[in-house]
Amino acid sequence: MFSAKHFPTLTKLKAICILIVLGLLVYANALNNRFVWDDDGQIVNNVMVHSLENLGMLYAGSTFGFSASNQLSGVYYRPMMSTFFAITYTIFGSNPFFFHLFQVIVHIGNAIIIFLLFKYFFPASLSLILASIFLVHPINSETVEYIANTGDVLFLFFGMMAIFIVKKNLTQIRYSVSVGLLLLWSLLSKETGILFLPIIFLWKWLFYRKNMVKLSFIFAGVITVYSLNRFGLAHLYFNKPDSIPLSSLDLLHRMLNIPQIIFYYLSQFIFPLRLSIAQLWIVKSIDISTFWIPLLVDAMLLISLAFIGFYFWKRDRQYLKGYVFFCCWFVLGLLIYLQIIPLDMTVADRWFYFPMVGLLGIIGILLSKLISMHTRWNAWIILTLSIVILLFSIRTMIRNQDWKDAATLFRHDLLISKNNYQLELLLAYELNKTGNYQESLIYSKKSIQHFPTYSGWSNLGVAEIKSGNTNKGIIALENAYEMRPYEDVAQNLAYALLLYKQPQEAKDFIQQQLTKFPNNPNFWFYLAMANYKLGNNPEAITAAQQCYFLSYGEKCKVIYLNLQQSQKIPPELLKTLLN
Fold first, then answer.
1. What is the reported pLDDT for 503?
2. Phi, psi of 492 (to 5 degrees)
3. Closest-CA residue to 286 (of 255, 325, 250, 326)
4. What DSSP state is assigned to residue 40?
5. Who's near 180: CB < 8 A, 6+ residues apart?
6. Nearest C-alpha neighbor of 63 from the set 189, 152, 193, 185
7. What is the pLDDT at residue 3?
8. How far apart are CA 260 and CA 262, in angstroms?
């Protein structure tokens, strides 16, 4: 839409090749990273995504599979993301390399689509530079490397594809169906796919004002199908998160955080040095550093955007439509993450993935105008932006190394986000997995001290028991169960009671859990062992049969055969079974 005479010529194919090579170079050292954080719950331990035979069930539940009952749990509805997990797992198994590779490829694809979108507004060289910034920007490293959030790259990919198709003649059924499917897939990848509805409506209204009524019907169809799936099939509603301090604040006190939240994203966009996951800070009081300075910076930005828009409207309207489009994209993308509706973190780098496209579009328009006024600045601007891309690439490659495994990531980010209860409990969980129980005790206690959660108590309980403090461990697990009587918490407590308390006490608790989780083979295994300890061999055999029926587990088979043949389990075998 703007003149290219001040920019060097660049073919579309060459630009796409540059983006592909640049993306692979920058993220090459991330491909061998392991599973981290929620990757365990959504992929490694989630048997529902281990086979395409469960494809239909992925659309009838959430994304987590901690449950031994093979039931999906959680509050998110992202079946398209789970589908891609299932496809990747079915073909390549549990090798994280291929999950990372898929995510990097889609991210590169998004950069290419952004380049093509920007070409509607800017010359190819400037569009390539802006798309390259998106591709290598360190704040996007979380989006690209965190496998459990593949939904972020997917929802942007499908939504951006819909933008290109919607400018075509929607009276043709193939284009209408394509737009509808892409928008639906975007929503099914992540809930924020809803943002593409107002963005596409604005895009169509500003630049291709035809078939607006038809587009409205497509939107209505997409929302209807999505709602039927989410609320009717999966029975997943929008719940307020209760595991972070910010969610306990009322709307007024949450709004005190808005200036600092906006300032965080802007500062990280310019100087992405202190990157960290799971940020849960709160602005508790109105002071200079956390409220007034961010408010002043944010106000200056908004006033500047409004002033520039007024200038274009008065003096240079060829830039106005594009400027309005990208400003709306940027503001809408930020708006949903300002804690007006409480979220499960204060800020997250991956939440800037969508707004960054709008911000880069704004920058592109301003640079186009600047170069048209001062043509001699062209080379200097391109050189400066090229240096920025180089520096961002180096920073991203360094950040890739933080993600090489869970413990490395959590340890590093605790240095940035100090006294973060969630990072502390995540590190404690990893330490428990690797048998470092003494260090896990330290971080579990810190986590509970900063903000007590059922996960913190559960981590502490496991670490205490494994360290030999069985009574303290059971008390901690009981605290976890009292806070959240979840299936995994109940399993840990049942196991502890079976090992260290009276068999009857363990049996009573296990039977209580089986009324809530009748398809959990672990509870049936624990019941078999409790009955065996009590001398109730017929009941132990029945429970072992049920356990084997549900999971075909070797332990259950061993119990069943030994009790059937000799009515006894050898002491050494019993010890092995309970470990």
1. 86
2. -60, -45
3. 255
4. I
5. 218, 221, 222
6. 189
7. 47
8. 6
Residue matched to tokens 């604005």: 202
Is residue 258 within 8 Å of residue 216, measured between CB atoms? no
Both tokens of residue 303? 């006033």
DSSP state letter for 30: G
Regions of the chain short of the pLDDT cut 50: 1-4
SS (H, E, C) 432-450: HHCCCHHHHHHHHHHHHHH
Q: What are the beta bridge partners of residue 64?
A: 73
- For residue 279, the cross-strand partners are 347
**Alpha carbon distance 209, 204 (integer Å):** 6
**The two structure tokens encoding residue 27:** 């993220």
Radius of gyration of the chain (CA): 27
To 10 degrees, the CA torsion angle through 430, 432, 438, 439? Answer: 10
Residue 234 tokens, joined? 């999966």
Residues in the chain: 579
pTM > 0.85: yes or no: yes
**Residue showing tokens 């991210």:** 107
Residues paired with 347 in a beta bridge = 279
What single string gives the DSSP state of each residue in 392-411?
HHHHHHHHHHHTSSHHHHHH
Structure tokens at 1: 């839409």
Q: For residues 57 and 48, is the Cβ–Cβ distance under 8 A?
A: yes
Residue identified by tokens 């009981």 is: 478
Look at the block and give the residue holding tokens 């007006």.
340
| Per-residue confidence (pLDDT) for residue 569, from 0 to 100 | 63
